[in-house]
Design goal:
The protein has 352 residues and is of the alpha/beta class. The chain contains ten helices and ten strands. Bound molecules: 5'-O-[(R)-(carboxyoxy)(hydroxy)phosphoryl]adenosine (KG4) and zinc ion (ZN).
Length: 352
């Protein structure tokens, strides 16, 4: 079908973004990469809470049930129809293959039916792009700390679409460590926000948990030793019949994570002479990390950006924003676009 009318303002690029890489079915309409007209998120948390974590097969089925209605609502909240849209952007990876396939298939079907360009987006690049939404003056180059459930990276965004990975986790992602420690503390999934909450009542200096240093890679992370130290501490208390102050454990664990993330990020900014730092990913919603990153920036006179909480965890607006900049760079995916569960930051070749 041909695109028959064009209700866009001259100079306006209107992107419909679709996200389904994990346990949120989300869609949004964003103008010129920064102005959000709608942002609809259907969270599957209540479904997965029963199992203590995301069950990929159940997630896929939930996405199938919701994806069309979420997209329809994103369009109607924005007061747009497909004819007003310049391109459809969709998360192609990284993520869970089944959930990714649902969003990719929906986006391909829409692009085909409405004769619209299709842009495959990297989920992590989407998290970084969340910073463009509320900070109209933000431009690369900047250093981004991306901390989510599946990934922890320090990235130098040199230009739109050009990324250099300076550091990454060797084992668990920061959010994964939060979720595992939460489970050990008897807190329900998703554990990150619950640990954050509990930590506010605890003493971050109460227990000395390790901060891993990796000799040959100063910006890499390792959180599995920290997670094991927390588990060992809890087991030790149980065996010796010592009562556990869970708030102190949460606060001390959180301090160890936040110290390492913050220190590595600003060390990278200094080494690469970058004067702007951004925070991104689900763990960017963490109150202690937000505070530490902001005050470290202030101390160093660095320009700092962090998204509002709604743009930290998975959402369609960040995908539409990243999709806009990719679209402006001339990037297009064909209808052969596939889900790429292990897509790397900056990797364009596998985006159809
Ligand atoms: O980015 P995201 O929504 O999904 C992935 O791309 O992985 O991140 C989800 C992760 C989960 O591990 C969740 O526990 C963590 O972000 N998270 C938090 C907080 N809010 C979400 N971790 C710590 N403190 C929070 N307030
Ligand atoms: Zn995410």
């Amino acid at each position: 079908m041909e695109k028959i009318s064009n209700a866009k303002e001259p100079g306006e690029v209107v992107i419909l973004g679709v996200e389904s890489s994990c346990d949120e079915t989300a869609a949004a309409v964003v103008v010129n990469g920064r102005q959000v007209l709608s942002n609809v998120i259907h969270s599957q948390i209540p479904v997965h809470t029963l199992y203590g974590g995301v069950v990929p097969e159940i997630a896929s089925r939930e996405h199938i049930k919701r994806v069309n209605q979420v997209i329809r609502k994103a369009l109607s909240d924005a007061g747009k129809t497909l004819q007003d849209i310049s391109a459809v952007a969709v998360t192609a990876g990284p993520g869970l293959v089944g959930p990714l396939l649902v969003g990719v298939s929906a986006a391909k079907a829409m692009a085909f039916a409405a004769g619209l360009p299709l842009v495959g987006v990297n989920h992590i690049e989407g998290h970084i792009a969340a910073n463009f939404i509320e900070h109209p003056d933000l431009e690369p180059p900047f250093i981004a700390l991306v901390a989510s459930g599946g990934h922890s990276h320090i990235v130098l965004m040199e230009d739109y679409g050009t990324y250099r990975i300076l550091g990454q986790t060797r084992d668990d992602a920061a959010g994964e460590a939060y979720d595992k420690v939460a489970r050990a503390l008897g807190l329900p999934y998703p554990g990150g926000p619950k640990v954050d909450q509990l930590a506010r009542e605890g003493n971050p200096e109460a227990i000395s948990f390790p901060r891993a240093k990796i000799e040959d890679a100063p910006y890499d992370f390792s959180f599995s030793g920290l997670k094991s130290a927390v588990l060992n501490y809890l087991n030790g208390c149980e065996m010796k019949n010592i009562p556990v102050n869970k708030a102190d454990v949460a606060a001390s664990f959180q301090k160890a994570v936040v110290d390492v993330l913050t220190e590595h990020t600003y060390r990278a900014a200094e080494a690469y002479h970058v004067r702007t730092v951004c925070l991104a990913g689900g763990v960017a919603a963490n109150s202690a990390l937000r505070q530490a990153m902001e005050s470290a920036a202030e101390k160093r006179g660095i320009v700092y950006s962090q998204p509002s909480l709604i743009y930290c965890t998975d959402n369609g607006a960040m995908i539409a924003s990243a999709g806009y900049f990719a679209y402006q760079n001339g990037e297009r995916s064909g209808l052969t676009l596939n889900a790429v569960p292990n897509l790397k930051i900056g990797e364009k070749g596998r985006l159809g």
